[in-house]
Amino acid sequence: xxxxxxxxxxxxxxxxxxxxxxxxxxxxxxxxxxxxxxxxxxxxxxxxxxxxxxxxxxxxxxxxxxxxxxxxxxxxxxxxxxxxxxxxxxxxxxxxxxxxxxxxxxxxxxxxxxxxxxxxxxxxxxxxxxxxxxxxxxxxxxxxxxxxxxxxxxxxxxxxxxxxxxxxxxxxxxxxxxxxxxxxxxxxxxxxxxxxxxxxxxxxxxxxxxxxxxxxxxxxxxxxxxxxxxxxxxxxxxxxxxxxxxxxxxxxxxxxxxxxxxxxxxxxxxxxxxxxxxxxxxxxxxxxxxxxxxxxxxxxxxxxxxxxxxxxxxxxxxxxxxxxxxxxx
Amino acid sequence: xxxxxxxxxxxxxxxxxxxxxxxxxxxxxxxxxxxxxxxxxxxxxxxxxxxxxxxxxxxxxxxxxxxxxxxxxxxxxxxxxxxxxxxxxxxxxxxxxxxxxxxxxxxxxxxxxxxxxxxxxxxxxxxxxxxxxxxxxxxxxxxxxxxxxxxxxxxxxxxxxxxxxxxxxxxxxxxxxxxxxxxxxxxxxxxxxxxxxxxxxxxxxxxxxxxxxxxxxxxxxxxxxxxxxxxxxxxxxxxxxxxxxxxxxxxxxxxxxxxxxxxxxxxxxxxxxxxxxxxxxxxxxxxxxxxxxxxxxxxxxxxxxxxxxxxxxxxxxxxxxxxxxxxxx
Amino acid sequence: xxxxxxxxxxxxxxxxxxxxxxxxxxxxxxxxxxxxxxxxxxxxxxxxxxxxxxxxxxxxxxxxxxxxxxxxxxxxxxxxxxxxxxxxxxxxxxxxxxxxxxxxxxxxxxxxxxxxxxxxxxxxxxxxxxxxxxxxxxxxxxxxxxxxxxxxxxxxxxxxxxxxxxxxxxxxxxxxxxxxxxxxxxxxxxxxxxxxxxxxxxxxxxxxxxxxxxxxxxxxxxxxxxxxxxxxxxxxxxxxxxxxxxxxxxxxxxxxxxxxxxxxxxxxxxxxxxxxxxxxxxxxxxxxxxxxxxxxxxxxxxxxxxxxxxxxxxxxxxxxxxxxxxxxx
Amino acid sequence: xxxxxxxxxxxxxxxxxxxxxxxxxxxxxxxxxxxxxxxxxxxxxxxxxxxxxxxxxxxxxxxxxxxxxxxxxxxxxxxxxxxxxxxxxxxxxxxxxxxxxxxxxxxxxxxxxxxxxxxxxxxxxxxxxxxxxxxxxxxxxxxxxxxxxxxxxxxxxxxxxxxxxxxxxxxxxxxxxxxxxxxxxxxxxxxxxxxxxxxxxxxxxxxxxxxxxxxxxxxxxxxxxxxxxxxxxxxxxxxxxxxxxxxxxxxxxxxxxxxxxxxxxxxxxxxxxxxxxxxxxxxxxxxxxxxxxxxxxxxxxxxxxxxxxxxxxxxxxxxxxxxxxxxxx
Lengths: 329, 329, 329, 329
Known about the structure:
The structure is a homotetramer. By secondary structure, the first copy, chain A, is α/β, with parallel strands linked by helices.
């Protein structure tokens, strides 16, 4: 029998999620939900079988709806997700899970108590390039990871409800935690807002981990360059995942310093072969939707599940506190 | 009559400075000085007219020497520069001027009291690309400068006597101060050392200025990429100086956000023409040497003179304190 | 009243054309036509108002159809276009118009005699980048055009019914003729086939024009690089249209040789400013469809009309003859 | 005992050759020779031990001179080389060996009859990148080579004594022959001259080989781009040698078409891993000079020896004939 899914919020991501879910085998987009009748009318033709609702309550009143996808404004994520979970439905919520740790914890509690699946839309965790990067890290091919840095720059859409840390950095934080598998013991953020008072357009984050590893994020929607890139520096090799590259998104550099056997304490620069392994060419969004459905069917914890989503919010909140403290001085 | 110059320290930069000074009109490389007889012998053929010395004292004993160029290890800069200035000679010292503000101030005092020229080898300030960037900033072509960031990355030479902040960052700090013309009111640095205990291989710096402008530096000699780049984000336009580009080192982007006249508080993304003005193709090192000689002749204050060099050390020291404080937590 | 259009051939381009025509104001996709019932069924949902036909005859039997879009296999272009035009309907036919000059001339005759619009789908002529390139050529900004070269390389789809000259080169030939406004007086082509006997995978073409200007095309679907680029070398400036660039598709170089006033017959290399003007960001396919409809409404000759399409076939046929002659030796 | 070498012609290449020969063990630059006393005076300080001559006769009068390096204007290569060889001395002559096959054959005859070493300065044959490319070709790693193409573009120095074919193309022809090991059975060239009557600024060459392999050269000194690149397309893999890249000069692409086992005659596009092997970082010019000296010492035939240099001239002359024939039509 088909899994009946409701998609709530028909802004940018909602319709994309609906389209990708709609083509999966044995998945039915049963409801489209948005407060705007125009939005519903606009997207109706693409999902002729779906019913329309103006509120989440209407959707949840249909007992046959098993899963709800939330692509609503960020300020509503936590409350709506909690409502969905408390109603005993599986919930996919766009990133970030919440705008505070307290809110995120309430959602995670709801998921645990309801025994349903909670998945956060940390899309990059489903990108084949990130999967390859993780494989390189975990296989030891890079040696010990020293540090990671992410560059997410663009002349992008200014947001009024999120700063660059929460809007852009949620991606990078989720990837860094995914790659390193530990939470930072020290975080620091600095930024500045130029376009809208109090909404940072550019943010720099530093994270230090208990293992001694470090990460840095350079986030900006006010930049002449368009960069979406991670660099991992390991003791044996270094690797880059460049999502703006049309081909060769992953590059592994046999670069580093070798101890000079002939001298004490001297190092020799090693600059060896460079290679770009192929990565799968499937769309991250499709893979993400498939994963959500598979976790529901198998009762499995999603890669970007409750705990994972909470960890991201925990780091974002800590970074925001550092940002606020710096601004206050 | 020829200006008689002594070059002290025949490592990497000393011979380059000697070569560039030696071809200037009415300049004579009168002395080569190094503690190593092998180094002296190796460079002797390029300067057949120069006398050789093993110590600065010998050089200063020659009353006809008017100017001394110091390209010695960084730990000796301040003491030797003070000695040169107190001996009434003009002094060019490689960057940074000193390893502490206290030391730098002593040198600056010596320069003021002796009335001689003190110039610090902040080479980038003599780069035609930086000159063009400054022209763009000062002409208002970029509008108000919002922030600047520098990327100085490489798989480079590991140093034992300086970390990446002092070795690489001295360049970037000098350029940022040169472009903005003010000193930061808040600085923050984070970094990590992997190759040698206590010597940071990678450092991230944030500077906030009284005007509200900001700067960020990403410094590393442990990176797969080779980047030497400044990006200036202004309210009207953005510009990049990319020193790794073979051509088109300067690029100006007509990019930004414009207030939408038809709505309240909304912004429209503007992505207009891009252009790369030509810049002079003269070598920064030659220009730097010419400037030193011209300042001596005209009794002028060098662009990277005493106060300028002191300001750079002040910022580096403050960044180092932030780095140390973070490490200690 | 709406213009009723039939789209014939539902392979790759047909559905794209139907989709773009379908959203134009006062245009109705009245018929979808394809010999394959599966293809019709697959595309039916996107055009719920369209009737279905298995043959062109059925379509033409509907007297209310005013225009027919042909996106059928290349071998059928000429015969079907002639049938459409002789039936008094306007015709858009995918490039190339025909596989021989004789066939193309029959179609052009049919268009002239029927007084209807014939337009050939030379898509690049509707690309804002080509429009900008033409503007640069015609405004004299480049000086006199010396020569143009095109690179169209890829690891692409092998074709069994066309070689790289006809499949890829039709684009480049149409652009070169569009930019220069004259037909070549000398053509030469060389190529080689590796994957399928007699079907060239790589072709090099040289064209010399009566004015002395020249053009070269490098065409290949068996190449590690992906290039889609035109370079125009003029007496004053040079320009590139790089369709693979995400931004800055057009670049103008103030480069060339200047007569040295101080010597006789010597030249000085000039390497001045480089700039990238913005170009419109509208989709060429949408612009092409709008142009077809506008020409029907205004009774105007399309930019890529009958004579233009015939000229392209004339040049392609001459190049093919050169290719065959070389192969025979 | 030291090998005594004379360097004749102190324009651009002569001094470079002298400098590189001068530092080799047991090699002595015994004579500098140039018709211009100013040129001799200018380069004298770099070779304090060398005697000076205004003519080749003076040099050859010194019986202790064993080898002569000719870096004179291209029109003099053949006659001077013949004189050197007939005088029983080893001869290195800058490329091309001669401006006609007849002249080149006379020099080759002289070398054979004198039993001395004749080496032509086809510098690229000593480039580690070309060596790696050849290794890739010969090891079968690329499969069967289908075709090679070279791009040598620049806004370069206009020449009055050579067109772009002879000046730039001599490099590419020598590399193509070196890589393929056979001589072309069909050649074709087209070009155009804009700056000086009769001196082609841009030339396109096509070569077809008895094995069915092909090559194409795009040569121009009137171009906005700076390219120095070879691409080799093989049946299994493709490779590029890009001499403008700062790193990763060689790239191997696991790209091609594979027969689809499930269908008859269909192909599947394969786009696999990409890698850049390290290549040696020694200067080609140094390697070339070492090779000349080694061949003299070992009595070996140089890689770019008499027969090899003659083959290049044979191909260039055939290409020039094609160019002339086209121009005449």
